[in-house]
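Revision sheet: structure tokens.
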Amino acid sequence: MHGAANAPRNRLANQTSAYLLQHAGNPVDWYPWGDEALLRARELDQPILLSVGYSACHWCHVMERESFEDEQIATLMNGHFVCIKVDREERPDIDHLYMTALQAMTGRGGWPMTMFLTTDAKPFFAGTYFPPRDRGGMAGFARVLEKVAETWKTRRDEVEASAGRMVEFLAKLGSRGGDEARWSVPAASEAAASLVSAMDTVHGGFGRATKFPATMALTLLMETAPGTDSDQARLVRLTLDRMADGGIRDHLGGGFHRYSVDAIWLVPHFEKMLYDQALVARLYADASRFFDEPRYASVAAEILDYVLGEMRSSDGGFWSAQDADSEGEEGKYFVWTRDEVLQLLGVQRGERFCAAYDVCAEGNFEGKSILHRVENAARGLDEELAQDRAELLRRRRARIAPATDRKIVADWNSLVISALAAAGRCLGRRDFLDAAEAAVNYIETSLVAGGSLEHVHPAGGTAVPAFLDDYAFFGRACLDLFAARPDPRHFQRALWCAGHLLDEFLDTRGGGFFFTGSRGESLIARTCDLNDGAIPAGNSVAAELLMRLFELTGERHYREAADAVFTRFLADALRQPYGASHLLAVAERDRKGWRTVVVCGRSEVREKLSRVAEAVYDPATTVIGIEDGSAPGLPAALVGKDAPAGTAVAYVCEGLACRMPATSERELARALRRDGGFGGEA
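Predicted:
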């Protein structure tokens, strides 16, 4: 049971974050991040114990139960440290900065993040999860606390010097100069080959265990594959199939869990994060076009139906996460016994279901069974098993469900908007496009204040200014929605986001964009990097947004700012393609050449041409259908485009230069072909 279920015992009781409230009943004298805590550390001359996590984090719950509820450990924490608890989803700037330090100190990262800071918030010792007492070769948290407190008192000069060196390291990361790489076809294929060499050729995915969906890396492999029958493409398909069949997918309720703890995609950490739903849905929607595989489109639709059904607020925004735990046990809500299934479905149907989804007497997870498809056994029985799945889902909904973190953040909502826009067009789902528009309107009405975007509001009673990811992702989402529904307001919103990026986040000396804006809180260092984490790197999405805006407007300053991102980061990205897959994908699109296909004419006659253009998997091409280019507020690339009355034509444009308009499906298919690229005639 989380501390929030107990009577409030510390300052976190006044916070709005679900994660902080989970710790409000701890005997630890927690502070939220802020001036009060930082001033208290200086007044007492005590180091800061910074603990960062999020509400759906299983190991955060474990450490809370084992250590933060332990009176003896709480006494050590309160006696020697000023203890600060941070929700990484509310304050990604704090998480991003200190996670960089953690990775530099230990070579790894993760949550809960446990960081020890000097009185001026400089990091000097760090870790992730600690057991309460020494266990399995791991130092116990009680011993760590005692050792750090002793070191602070007896070796203060060494601590301060070490912390100073770490701050210098962080500052250099945020101010390094450019290292321009020449982009070429061999460089693209070498980056892809490096990724392929790290893949599991039996079960798909990268490495052995733990396995994440790795959506950015898989997208890069699709974009650089020489064709759908190549070895590279076959490994992507293998991964998509194994994930769709595995326990990482919720086969009853929809959506994907965070990651698989094993190599075969069976046992997940059961939390469901909003960003995973967006990125995995977009991956499967794109794969449905690349492989011409309707089944992948169905997976994408199932994920987004789950998001709309269970993670959407009444006013159109999307909640952050659903927990891994319920009733104090990880995964309890999701697993089954054979007897339960047979009792619910009857023997004949139950036996069929158990065989298809590996529900066995001994179980495959702590005596119970995680549903997963056995060697594709359930795939041919989808229609027959649909009723069985529905009955199990109804029974599951009678259980005590995991908690939902109802925090709404701008960047993750923007990822969902992009996924809904892409899948809405791919699947012909108007409801997806309606939901995307509603989410854009939610952000505009609820997360914009004083002419600027907020990351999340309210957070602990105060607004948090938007970060790089918020503006970059929202701007791109508005462009994605504009392509699906060319309302000039969506385009103008994208321009607004780009303006804020250039005014508040641009590193004018080194190129690229800082994670924090000029109006945000000043921390010990300002970071600027290229690494994809659970979501694409903000710099890579900013570059994508700016390049697409340049293609639509011809405004050179967008192109120059995007080029500066590549000058600074591309060489590093080529050396570590897994950690910078999205930047490499954007660079690959730039190498191919960005294009806009403008399909004009009355809606009922332009649909055939639009379908031809949209059927080609080419992420560097944006398809926009309009009646004509006379509406005010449209980008320059669309202005003046029209078709003779009663007909439809398609303009294939690179920047503001367009080919002669295509009037037939065959002409358009020919115009869309790239020499040596992927695509073909209808």
